[in-house]
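As the next step, I wrote out a protein sequence along with its fold in token form, included below for the reader:
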Amino acid sequence: MDTQLTALMINCTLKPSPAESSSDLLGRQILSALAGHGVGIDSIRAIDHDIRPGVQADMGDGDEWPKLRELVLGADIIVFMTPTWLGQHSSVAQRVLERLDAELSETDDEGRPTLFDKVAIAGIVGNEDGAHHITGILYQALGDVGFTIPAQGVVYWNGEAMHGTDYKDLDSTPEKVAQSTMTATANAAHLAQLLREQRYPVSS
């Protein structure tokens, strides 16, 4: 029986809930667009959880990554959101990427990496330059641990350098951001469905 595709947003803002977050706003716009393609949606704000430093699936007593990992493993699409700080992805985003590194040594019942057949798209916001640089880092890291990146699988917004306007302060969604959201989500849903119907082969 066919089941609904699902998407999980991992918001790597530095702001704990319930603080307003530009990356949360853009991420929810992306999730809404995915829902328009029939995808079930969920989200987590990584900073609200005790994610211990390390590169193992479970770093011991008090580590909350194992329960978040189950959400990642249960989703078909990951929406990886990060703000831009000093031209880089956030420290929280780096922590999540490091924990995902553990999946390089984890396999499913057929011996395939656990994140094969899962799709990832990126979302980046900031009132400074850095989106293309961060996209390159996220594409490499997410692809390396097993995710598949769809064509034009990133949505970003850069405010004017040296100014203080955030994405959440805008009166409306910029046209280019809306277009990128539509393209990235359509391609992500399409790719996730293809991978569900025809999974990657087991390496011989």
The first strand starts at residue 6 and ends at 11. The chain has a mean pLDDT of 95.
